[in-house]
Amino acid sequence: MELMTKVKELELENKDLKSKLQANIDYNEKNALVLGEKCKEIGSLQHMLEVSKDELEAVKRDKLELEQKVLALSNDNRELISNLMSVKNEVAEKMNQANEIYNKALGVMEANSKQAVGGTKSSEKLDEYMLSSLSAPLASTIPEKPKFKISAHNQEALAVRYDNFGNSLATCGGDNLVKVWDPATGKEISRFKDFTKPVTCLDYNLDGNLICAGSVDKTIRVLDLKTQRSKHCFTGHSDTINSLSTLLRSAKIVSGSSDRTIKLWDYEKMQVSLTTNYPSATFSVDVAQDDNMLVTGHNNGTLVIWSINKFGKVIEFKDLHRGEVISSVCISRDSYYVLTNGRDNILKLIDLRKYDVVKEFTDDQYTNTSNTNRACLSTDSKFVLVGGNAKVLLFKDDGEVDTVYEDGHQTRVLGTDWEPRGSQFATVDAYGGLIIWE
Questions:
Q1: Which of 105, 151, 152, 148 is nearest to 130 (CA)?
Q2: Would you say residue 115 has pLDDT above 60?
Q3: Please, is 96 exposed, middle or buried when counting C-beta atoms within 10 Å of its C-beta (0-12, 13-18, 19+)?
Q4: What does pTM read for this prediction?
């Protein structure tokens, strides 16, 4: 009996031990699963750690590369600043030279006004100073924005020109007026009401005391800024006068007209000196500073270079602008180049020493909108300035666009001129607006 009881106790104890053993086995299996998950997490964290290390190394490399670039840019910036200061010093030196020449000219002018005897000799000396200052190689500065926006004419403004020293500028327009402005203040100085129809073109004489202007009324008037009166009126053309240019070394004017004639006028003798016919209407003329060379642009796209002394053709560039009107010609200060502007929306630079086209200027943003739209060269011939449809474009001498000025005109730009000292330029438009840029 006792043995049986002992067996039952042992069986119960065995059963309890088995139950505890199974519980331990289940617990260990569960811990093994958890341990496996933890190992996986540790492996993932180790991988992330390796990736983070790689990323950190990449960031360090990028930082080092950026530091090297910043250092290189700092060196470039210092070099650019140094170059800029050098250019500014050069410009200042050129401006000082020009001002010195100009002040000498003013001194001679004052002496001339006080001198009762020997006036001719003094006047010749003054002209020599003036002409030398005009041929001085002045570096041009690039204007950034409008200095003055002026409502100059009630109808379209057709032309703008500075005097030869930049002390004043003149505009003319469809309201039959010629107006003179102070470019330093933007104020009107004087106006002339002598024409009966739109005034298409104008130019100053050497000392800036006279303005010669041509009109749709077929007349050329010589306007005296001192007396505020029309000094002479020339008739002789039978159609619109599209362009004119004054000679600097003599009291003469060259004019081009739709009547297919080119005339040389003497406003001291008050007569026409020479007339020559050309098969196509003349829309643009310009005279070199030595008064020996004349350049004309025509309705058929042909450019002609003339000798003024003989008033004969030197060379023709036939169909230079593919049969389209040449709206302007502009001879450089040194007389080495002439810039042409065609209704084919192309500007061309011709070397007058080789009689060869050396550069063309064109851009999708430029459209020539007028038969008398004048483009011009900067004082150092390194830039080309032209007006388009509500835009003013500045080309570099390599043919690329440097700047497009859009914050100014709201309509077609019809004329441009660069101030002779190189520090500003002026533009006019079809609404009669004048903008002086600086």
A1: 105
A2: no
A3: exposed
A4: 0.73
